[in-house]
Design brief:
The protein has a six-stranded mixed beta sheet. Strands 13-14-15-12-16 form a five-stranded antiparallel beta sheet. The two termini are 22 Å apart. It has 351 residues and is α+β, with helices and mostly antiparallel strands. It has a domain at 18-120 and 180-248: FAD/NAD(P)-binding domain (3-Layer(bba) Sandwich), CATH 3.50.50.60. The protein has helices at residues 18-24, 38-49, 66-69, 76-81, 89-117, 151-158, 181-194, 246-249, 304-317; strands at residues 25-34, 54-57, 73-74, 124-125, 135-136, 141-142, 177-178, 198-200, 207-211, 214-219, 224-232, 252-263, 272-273, 278-281, 286-290, 326-337.
Length: 351
């Protein structure tokens, strides 16, 4: 995975002394996970399954930030071709391969969650049989010239895609899909608890307790907890905790996104992307429309302009949606790194 992982060798300083530690420590855990979204809950579940004593600390309620606000698409092909990642050219292939591997793991992942919890995360990955059409293999999409027809494209047109879009170049991404992200959070939380993870919600971690090159504890408003290792999964807030290595604090920022929910009533049966919006149909008839991209710091708000932008784009793409009931709207904060790559692996702190 060359080009995906970054490591630095900077130092941090201790904010707590041994005297503070000895008088304040209340419990000891093998691993403390800061952040209770999809990543934090997944790691907690798997680590506990391997025998670790795991504590998960969440500032609000589990899965109520980016994991709640997301659209739930599993779309590496779309991101790679239609909306390329903002990463260096040398890292594009590594990033694409990384995301493809993640998508390919989802069927087993979903089956394990269903077996452990009885909760269906509504995984949908479409797969179509191979035909004699041109195969644009490198980016993972099927290419069809504009003057040729295809029953799958005709099916999309039958479901209301606007006439003006019929003359544009389009791509079918047969292996991309979606998951119901809020049900995924619920299943992961249930699986983690069943595996023995201790989850503390409404718990604001203020500081990592650092001695030399190691984290020896995490401190919230009430106590210091002794830990063997720390896993930082707090998304856009990861850099806001005192003691976090500078390579994290300086590399993550929030990017806001607004979304709306319509009552789709099967007007759209497949995930559809355009330059202006994406449409994600749910099994129960909801239709998710997203998303704005806003550099506004930690402001998480829904605006008239943002909702208007999304509704115009959705109705332009599928005119029938003009009569669809507007059910809800929300905003979330995506964690975005300076170089556009995921932050995985060790830091300048050993653990």
């Amino acid at each position: 995975m060359n080009g995906v992982f970054r490591f630095r060798t900077t130092k941090t300083v201790s904010f707590y002394t041994n005297r503070h530690m000895s008088s304040a420590v209340t419990e000891t855990f093998d691993v403390a996970i800061i952040g209770g979204g999809v990543i934090g809950l997944s790691c907690a579940w798997k680590l506990a399954g391997r025998g670790a004593r795991v504590l998960l600390l969440e500032r609000l309620q589990s899965g109520r930030e980016a994991s709640f606000a997301a659209g739930g698409m599993l779309a590496p092909s779309c991101e790679n071709v239609v909306h390329p990642w903002a990463v260096a050219e040398k890292s594009q292939t590594a990033m694409f391969d990384f995301c493809l591997a993640s998508r390919q793991m989802y069927p087993v992942f979903a089956a394990q969650l269903l077996e452990e919890t009885g909760l269906d995360i509504e995984l949908l990955l479409q797969s179509y049989p191979s035909r004699d059409w041109k195969d644009w293999r490198e980016p993972g999409i099927l290419y069809l010239p504009r003057d040729e027809s295809d029953p799958r494209i005709n099916a999309l047109l039958e479901h209301g895609v606007a006439t003006q879009f019929q003359e544009r170049t389009a791509v079918l991404l047969p292996e991309d899909g979606q998951v119901e992200n809020r049900k995924l959070v619920a299943a992961l939380k249930a699986a983690a608890i069943k595996a023995g993870v201790e989850i503390r919600e409404s718990c604001m971690v203020r500081q990592l307790v650092v001695e030399g090159d190691r984290v020896v504890g995490v401190a919230d408003d009430k106590e210091v907890i002794s830990v063997g290792k720390v896993l930082m999964c707090a998304g856009a807030w990861s850099g806001k905790i005192n003691g976090v290595p500078p390579e994290i604090a300086s590399s993550i920022r929030p990017v806001a996104g607004q979304m709306v929910q319509l009552r789709g009533e099967r007007r759209v049966n497949q995930v559809i992307y355009s330059d202006e919006c994406y449409l994600v149909p749910r099994r129960d008839g909801r239709l998710i429309v997203g998303a704005t991209v806003e550099e506004v710091g930690f402001q998480k708000r829904v605006t008239a302009g943002g909702v208007s932008q999304l509704l115009r784009a959705a109705c332009s793409l599928v005119p029938e949606l003009e009569n669809a009931p507007l059910e809800s709207h929300w905003a979330g904060l995506r964690p975005v790194t300076t170089d556009g790559l995921p932050m995985l692996g060790t830091t300048s702190l050993e653990n």
